[in-house]
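Troubleshooting: if your tokenizer reports a length mismatch, compare your output against this known-good record of 98 residues.
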Amino acid sequence: TLLDVFHEFAALPDKFLTFDDGFRSLTLTYRDVAQGAYAFASELKLAGIAKGDKIILCGESRPGWVIAFWGALLEGVVLVPLEPSSSDAVIQRIQQAT
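Known-good structure output:
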């Protein structure tokens, strides 16, 4: 499963992703992403979001998006990704559907 893969790579110090926004570059290791994912999973739990709940992630493709994806997966939370350019009407319809 994806969680099996996550647990296999969670402790690796190897480079996982590099993000460059044109001003600065950020490189994260597998371990960095895993630590962030565990932290995000804890925040979901603190917020009362539990296994099977759905959350919308509306944001640009950045390292935080990857971390949120894995954190939601760790908690069994369904992640519904949306483009940041989505209109308010589209976001509201998706909120109602999910």
